Amino acid sequence: MDRNPEAREDWISMVRRRGASRSTFQEEVLATVLCVLYPDPVGGYPPAYARDTVPTLPELYPDSEQTLPTPSEIPFTPGSLLGCVSGELGLRRFLEERGHTLIVTSDKEGPDSEFDRHLPEADVVISQPFWPAYLSAERIAQAPNLKLALTAGIGSDHVDLDAAMKAGITVAEVTYSNSISVAEHAAMTILNLVRNFVPSHQYATDGGWNIADCVERSYDLEGFDVGIVAAGRIGRALAKRLKPFDVNLHYFDTHRLPEETEQELGLTFHESVQDLVRNVDVVSIHSPLVPATYHLFDRELIDTMRRGSYIINTARAEIVVRDDVVAALESGQLAGYGGDVWYPQPAPADHPWRSMPNQAMTPHISGTSLSAQTRYAAGTIEVLEDFFAERTPRQEYLIVDGGALAGTGAASYSTDGKASPGSSGR
Ligand code: NAD
Questions:
Q1: What was the pLDDT predicted at 13?
Q2: Is residue 415 part of a domain?
């Protein structure tokens, strides 16, 4: 893990500069930490990387008062592949030096999975939305020791939050750690679809020069009406990135932004998602998956959109109805659909989104760039240090605490008084 000690020193001194006051704790309780991570690259854990390090970012996240993670130490090399099984989120030495037990697996499906086998002994479960360990009510019932369900990343809808509240489990995530990563991916996907990049790239790769085939579906984004569903951290970062393209920006959110933010970003507010979608050419979805957004984009809503609209979804797959998206692409009602979120994850080989026309789908990768991994692995350590020292983690990291929605969870997950059910099955 320690192939780039200089980069690690940089990060450590940055953390110290930021005044991280946490000292190495003398914990009394030894914990079993069960970590579910995505499998290693098929060619094995990378011996080297495309770049030597990741940039050191400013102390605060953009347009916010929130500092980047401030653990007492960074026990991994920033910019290394931490989110896969061999990367272990950089936790092995950190935990074992303190006497804790770390179990890492990617085997998470079915009652005989390693995840299910180890659940009864786990005090802490950590997983990432890209390879989610679905913590349903049934699984929570099998985990009598479980005290903390931690998302290394953002989005805790893979946890049944009601069941977690009843069981007194704290649910936390590393808020903001990958918001910019996702906003960049959404901006990229919008341009990809509107400019018809993927098929054009394929012509080039295949030895062709089919200009007309490439451009018969290619437009400039300039002048388009672009609608953002939910102007939270990601939605606002996307607006900021799209503004220089001279588009007309619109949004809907259950919480309207301050007037000065609307003016600064050039955003027009719509009172409902229904009103938003019929007035735009591109819709980018950035709301959490909650009962109010579950299957929000169904055939009925998509049919009210302008013919040839594009939908980009980097939020959660179940905000749209899978087969209604396929039908709308096939009929031409949608000119394109793109994003990185699927249900379930990993998606089966025959998932229709793999073969539907005019799609720019990737696996769930937008929030797990090497840059993002560095931040959310550091945030994971920060939350674990607080947990072991019996301190409440930062409010912005909390989703559920003390039997109720808390912190960010109270702001983002409570719009209709209900919480996330942890996976489909509604
Ligand atoms: P955030 O908490 O900053 O913003 C969420 C926004 O959604 C808030 O402004 C809230 O008011 C709004 N909202 C809540 N319910 C709504 C509703 N019913 N209709 C419209 N707006 C509603 O969250 P964020 O960091 O911007 O992340 C947004 C979502 O993106 C996460 O919940 C997660 O599901 C997803 N995400 C995906 C990835 C990825 O890798 N693809 C990574 C991070 C987050």
A1: 52
A2: no
Pocket of ligand 1 (CB under 6 A): 129, 153-155, 178-179, 182, 229-235, 253-255, 286-290, 292-293, 314-316, 340-341, 364, 366-367, 408, 412, 415
pTM for the predicted model, two decimal places = 0.91
CA angle 156, 160, 165 (to 5 degrees): 100
Residue 255 has what pLDDT? Answer: 95
Gap from CA of 9 to ligand 1 centroid (Å): 34
Q: Do 223 and 348 fall into the same domain? A: yes
Q: How far is the CA of 66 from the centre of ligand 1 (A)?
A: 17
Tell me the CA–centroid distance for residue 233 and ligand 1, in Å: 7
Residue 235 CA: nearest ligand 1 atom is 26
> How many angstroms separate the Cα of 138 from the Cα of each of 72, 134, 151, 421?
36, 10, 19, 12
Q: What is the DSSP letter of 402?
A: T
pLDDT level of residue 414 (50, 70, 90 thresholds): low
Distances (CA, A) of 295 to 67, 272, 307, 348, 397: 34, 16, 20, 20, 27
Is residue 421 scored above 50 in pLDDT? Answer: no
224 and 328 in a single domain? The answer is yes
Instruction: Specify the CATH number for the domain of residue 107.
Output: 3.40.50.720
| Predicted pLDDT of residue 420 | 47
Q: Which residues are catalytic?
A: 178, 316, 345, 364
Q: For position 9, what pLDDT does the model report?
A: 57
